[in-house]
Amino acid sequence: MSVLFDEALDALKEVRVLADDESRKVMDQFVSSFPIRTSGSGGIDWNKVEKKVLLSCIEEISNQINLTLSDSCFVIWNDAAHPIIETTVGSIVKVFDDVTAVSFDTWIFIPKNNNVIESTPSSLRMTTFF
């Protein structure tokens, strides 16, 4: 793990680090829910996502989709050295910079309504399925 990962966990406060078997299940659900690029960074292929929005800041999510801050979400980083964690949307919004500093690309997967927020160095996008 890394110092930035530890700092993100400390900032989130209420967080659960998933075991390997749980992480695999979440990752399988994530990959089967969204079109993943097979080249480059392996992020979401946004050209294949019909309902999406480009956000200028994380606080805009409440204006875009039907989410409550208490909704559970999983944080997935592109660096596989970091385990998947579970927390709430509200916790992510409060310390978003700490969470996204852990790795270049970060996905916040919200299974309740099958949404994802993708944060990369160049953009912040999310699906708008609900």
Outline the fold blueprint:
Layout: H1 3-12, E1 16-17, H2 20-33, E2 52-54, H3 61-64, E3 72-77, E4 85-88, H4 89-94, H5 96-100, E5 106-110, E6 115-119, E7 124-127
Low-pLDDT residue intervals, each spanning 5 or more residues: none
Shape type: globular
Total of helices: 5
As a percent range, the share of helical residues equals 25-40%
Q: Give the strand line-up of the largest sheet.
A: 1-4-3-5-6-7-2
**Helix and strand string, N-terminal first?**
HEHEHEEHHEEE
Write down the Rg. Answer: 13 Å
Summarize the structure.
The protein is α+β, with helices and mostly antiparallel strands and 130 residues long. The chain is built from five helices and seven strands, in the order αβαβαββααβββ.
Describe this protein's structure.
- The chain is built from 5 helices and 7 strands, in the order αβαβαββααβββ.
- By secondary structure, the protein is an alpha+beta fold.
- The chain has one domain (3-127).
- A hairpin with a 4-residue loop joins β5 (106-110) and β6 (115-119).
- The termini are far apart.
- The model has no long low-confidence stretch (mean pLDDT 88).
- Pfam families: CdiI_ImmP (PF24172).
- InterPro entries: CdiI_EcoliA0-like.
